[in-house]
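Q: I have 334 residues here and want to know how they pack in 3D. Can you give me a structure?
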Amino acid sequence: MSITAVGLVVHTGKDRAVAAAAQVRRWAAAHDIPCTDIDVWSAEPHETRLSAVDEAKKAGHPGLIVTVGGDGTFLRGARVAARAGAAILGVDVGRVGFLTEAAVDGLIDALDAVLAGKFTLDERLMLTMCASRKLEIPTSIDALIRYGRGPTLPSPPVRERVSEDPADGVPLDILALNDVVFEKLARDRQASVAVFVNGRHFASYSADAVIVSTPTGSTAYSFAAGGPILSPKMEGLVFTPVAPHMSFNRSLVLGPTERVAVQVLERSGQVAVSVDGALRGVLEPGDWISVYAGAPKTRLIRLADIDFLDRMRTRLGLADAMAAVADGTAPDRI
């Protein structure tokens, strides 16, 4: 692989990640490859992060992005990689590691393999959205944001409109690899939302949150809320309600060309919109957002042929039922 520049995203709160990042910089310098730290979190309380487009420009539009941390750090890199058209290699210093690929102990070997082209690309579907208005974070909730992890991202810019129909809303220049979450902002007020699938009203929910996830994100918040796990080889959307006040609390699995729209009902509390774990806006009653598959895909670097279900079994610590083990041992393959 011809690497003209490397973008580096580091979980600076972990000593092992900081030490591993230093290895990446030394490796890049030894190969005369520019290496730029991106999505750097400032200690300033009111400092905001750069947009994905600006981050890619600052790093010289890298062909490779390396993340050193866990899946959260990987998602920080993914938002830039998709916009830069870069491949992304995750170095695992986290706790779960569904997305990361290389271990710290094998970091240099992993980078050498990428440079030599000894890898495969695992392309993953991403989500984008349009809205009734541009997303913004009110200054009145600034104190609440301070409880979050890291500085805020800027408001998503508006994409070029391709439809003249005003009902299609404002296209937002934003991508999600894992999920888009609509959640209540106040502890004592539920999020009351109407959910539409392909423009038709499906159901209205009063819930702690509702989630629209990709197959990649189906092992994240959606899974924790009781949603199904989808193979990343599939293309589609998963809609999952979180603690809904109704008898129907099941997920919906939808096709890759379908859309899920969420509108805040007139007497609902405010609804926060998070994209891959980062707060991106707050919705008022009457506001709506439509979520659907986006055009760019995240290109994950894979160095070994590891089956997704094997990875899931290991990462989640799945064990066979004791009653089944008592009745026999299963072979590794059939």
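Q: Anything worth noting?
A: The chain has a mean pLDDT of 90. The longest strand covers residues 200-207.
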